[in-house]
Amino acid sequence: MTGSATQPIEVGGRTISPGEKRQFRYSVGTSFHGDPIDIPVTVVNGENDGPAMFLSAAVHGDELNGIKIVQEVAETYGPPDIHGALVCLHVLNVPGFMAQQRYIPIYDEDLNRSFPGNPQGTMAKRLAHTIFEEFVSKCDLGLDFHTSTRNRTTMYHVRADMRDSDVERIARAFGTSVILDGEGSNGTLRKAASKTGVPTVTVEMGRAHRFQSTHLERALHCVASVLAEHEVLPDRPVSWPGWTRVVARDGEKTWLRAATGGLVDMKWGPQPLVEDGEQLFTISDHFKDEVEVVRAPSTGLVVGVLENAVAYPGHPLCHFVSVDETTADIIRDDIERGEFDVYREGGFQRPEYGESGEYEGRDPLS
Ligand SMILES: [Zn+2]
Fold first, then answer.
1. Which of 28, 163, 220, 356 has the CB geometry, 3.0–4.6 Å to 363, for a possible disulfide?
2. Region Disordered: what ranges (predicted)?
3. How many Å lie between the centroid of ligand 1 and the Cα of residue 187?
């Protein structure tokens, strides 16, 4: 690893000196039209020694909140401000971003199932390989920003492998109220990076296809907190959240699914805290002959939820996390203070969902 900012940092085929900030585009591949696929990069190499952190966005091309966060971070910090280096990868899946879709267009490959990549592999594997070799592997830690996929939304939270103490340190310093613990699916950037000694967490927030200002403001604060924890910003305090719920890898979180297919009515919200037995959804046929009622299995949080109002049998309706009464009380106070109001931001009617793991095959979330 590099990361000593009194040394030059070598990323993307360039050498950036201590005290230097450089913005450039780096070609990671070629389109079928013969054009280069360039990712925009900002490197800030601080005047003082410290770790190198990457921030990446839009590994899923339509997940825009992260792009705005990376843009703001790249603008905000200069070499005098930091001890270490920031490697800002503004858009990873450029073809997906151009088409405003999640996967790499045409063959619908998931870049976030392709890391650490393969120079002899498919398009996605090649892109992943170049990104990984030229940037990620040169850093000491990382934050990868996501949103839910279209037709869903997700609570602001972090996903991290909490068995890895370096990953745990980042996750806790980031300071979301909910951390979903797990190593992540194979091929995700965070799993591949963490396995090769670059501890990385995924940050999830909101919806695809928009900038959600409340999430963005909060995220910039959280990024600064991680930088403080790692002494990239040595004079800034780490801001711990009022409460943190680490959801274990087994149990505690569950998908509530539709037993029957049909039209989905959301009966809960707008806040994500629901009580044991509370009616969450009804699923009905056109004639309302059959109405299935889906209830909360305990007091808990709806971390993410379907936004589309139709479901096939077995379709996940929401991602549900149980909480104990003490935590529930703190969340109620947070709700009073408007902490979760952003859940309704963006003009949608009701809260929604997002996550991985339990899906067979391609994970449509995260
Ligand atoms: Zn994503």
1. 356
2. 346-366
3. 13
Cα of 352 from ligand 1 centre, angstroms: 15
Tokens linked to 341: 């109001």
Query: Distance, CA 211 to ligand 1 centroid (Å)?
Result: 15
Q: Spell out the domain ranges in the chain.
A: 9-245, 252-336
Q: Which CATH number fits domain 252-336: 2.40.50.140, 2.60.120.200, 2.40.50.100, 2.60.40.1180?
A: 2.40.50.100
Length of the chain: 366
Distance from the alpha carbon of residue 327 to the mean position of ligand 1, in angstroms: 28
Q: Which of 173, 177, 176, 175 has its CA nearest to residue 165?
A: 173
What's the gap in Å between 259 CA and the centre of ligand 1?
Answer: 27
**Per-residue CA distances from 273 to 249, 263, 276, 324 (Å):** 21, 23, 10, 11
- Residue 238 Cα to ligand 1 middle (Å): 26
Helices (H), 122-212: 123-134, 165-174, 189-195
Identify the CATH assignment for 9-245 out of 3.40.630.10, 3.10.350.10, 1.20.950.20, 3.40.50.10380: 3.40.630.10
Sequential pLDDT tens for the chain (366 residues): 444 447 899 999 999 999 999 999 999 999 989 999 999 999 999 999 999 999 999 999 999 999 999 999 999 999 999 999 999 999 999 999 999 999 999 889 999 999 999 999 999 999 999 999 999 999 999 999 998 777 677 778 899 999 999 999 999 999 988 888 888 999 999 999 999 999 999 999 887 888 888 788 889 999 999 999 999 999 998 987 766 777 766 556 788 898 888 999 888 877 889 999 999 999 999 998 888 999 999 999 888 787 778 999 998 888 888 888 888 888 888 788 776 665 644 333 333 334 433 332 233 344
